[in-house]
Amino acid sequence: xxxxxxxxxxxxxxxxxxxxxxxxxxxxxxxxxxxxxxxxxxxxxxxxxxxxxxxxxxxxxxxxxxxxxxxxxxxxxxxxxxxxxxxxxxxxxxxxxxxxxxxxxxxxxxxxxxxxxxxxxxxxxxxxxxxxxxxxxxxxxxxxxxxxxxxxxxxxxxxxxxxxxxxxxxxxxxxxxxxxxxxxxxxxxxxxxxxxxxxxxxxxxxxxxxxxxxxxxxxxxxxxxxxxxxxxxxxxxxxxxxxxxxxxxxxxxxxxxxxxxxxxxxxxxxxxxxxxxxxxxxxxxxxxxxxxxxxxxxxxxxxxxxxxxxxxxxxxxxxxxxxxxxxxxxxxxxxxxxxxxxxxxxxxxxxxxxxxxxxxxxxxxxxxxxxxxxxxxxxxxxxxxxxxxxxxxxxxxxxxxxxxxxxxxxxxxxxxxxxxxxxxxxxxxxxxxxxxxxxxxxxxxxxxxxxxxxxxxxxxxxxxxxxxxxxxxxxxxxxxxxxxxxxxxxxxxxxxx
Length: 497
Ligand SMILES: Cc1cc2nc3c(=O)[nH]c(=O)nc-3n(C[C@H](O)[C@H](O)[C@H](O)COP(=O)(O)OP(=O)(O)OC[C@H]3O[C@@H](n4cnc5c(N)ncnc54)[C@H](O)[C@@H]3O)c2cc1C
Hints:
Layout: H1 2-13, H2 17-30, H3 36-61, E1 62-69, E2 97-103, H4 107-119, E3 125-128, E4 144-145, H5 151-165, H6 171-203, E5 214-217, H7 223-236, E6 241-244, H8 246-253, E7 261-264, E8 268-269, H9 272-283, E9 289-292, E10 297-302, E11 307-311, E12 314-323, H10 329-332, E13 341-351, E14 362-364, E15 369-373, E16 376-385, H11 398-412, E17 417-429, E18 436-439, E19 445-449, H12 459-471, H13 481-484
Parallel strand pairs: 1-17, 2-3, 2-12, 3-9, 5-14, 12-19
Antiparallel strand pairs: 4-8, 5-7, 6-7, 10-11, 11-12, 13-16, 13-17, 14-15, 15-16, 18-19
This protein binds flavin-adenine dinucleotide (FAD).
């Protein structure tokens, strides 16, 4: 009894603003279609069960180090790009002028540098990063290389957006347009996944890449959705997304479920920070790429033929800009406040027996994600919008950590875990949850962003596309402006108008 009260009080005492925000997300996803009063009552009952029964039980087999580290497990080692190049050369200066300035050195920024180093015959690119390479969501994530969102998921989010904004189109026309978007997305994402696999092999990037797919346990109340989505995958030919029986979910992932799961065949697992740092290290072998970490871009001004990139170390002029700041975009470009919406997600890691959980495979339920990594397990959840100025803030909810621990016991029978690292990161969502790859201002400023928590499924091919566009190179157009440009949110440039 006293330990129950102590656990509950301990949690309640440390509640932060984000716990309350995240509670709203959970209520909405747990009880879709219920009235507000019904949701509140159901949530209160659930909360009481958690606090009184499940959390105290969890404390018997799971401990959380005090103080817990806020460093993501992927970034726990030495940082090869800390204060680059100033740590080694304190007199180093930003260049006065470059061909391309890249803002941010996450997945998209580092991929831009890599592609520039391979494709550009002239001109210099400067990558400007306010913290360090992979210090944002790129180094704080779950470690999956996704095939992008599956076709029917994209169709659904785009169609839902069109229902809100395109009453000028009939239902059939909106549905057709949503199919066009989904097809364009899936084509680009499938190519992206193969490009990553080939690049890791060709460049020998040591990033612990293992391709064993991603098991996504379905909510037993929503099996019709799984059925519809896998049928749409078959019918459209984007057949990476299939349904597997409960026994196969257990064989592949060690997850104990009683209903079929969704399975992405081509997904892989990796160390995301090693991938991003690996790309940057290769890019920096070229004299055409320069990197400046611990350098914050404070504003970007269009001066006609050039952009002035103002930073806290001086100004760089650039003919082209690639905005790879992802969830930080609206802080830098406030006009994009409603277009790029920062969302917080969180993870934790600790040494553990892992129960039945298998290694090298992506695993999620409808409420959380899980994976085995380096003698322990990584787990997390959440997708809650945060104010623009909170992008990148490290403020995980302890409540969510405790909740996902209870899920881990239920799904994998984990016997012990000592949580040593607990962190959060921000991703960004656009209103249609469809990424922006390409033009941002109708001129020479481009972006790769709005990737809706699926950065590994967009960033590599997306950056390739943007670099190719800047260099005027031919090749397949995986990101037609009609769908992927930020201009689609302008009334006069909407597709299908
Ligand atoms: C907990 C969690 C789990 C996730 N799991 C997965 C997963 O398994 N698979 C997957 O594909 N995706 C996952 N994601 C999402 C994925 O990490 C992101 O989609 C992806 O990293 C975003 O792209 P990025 O790497 O280019 O952005 P970021 O890594 O956020 O890069 C943006 C960079 O820009 C820099 N920056 C911002 N503003 C400025 C400025 N003014 N000046 C200079 N630099 C600036 C930032 O410091 C940062 O380094 C997850 C995210 C989280 C948080």
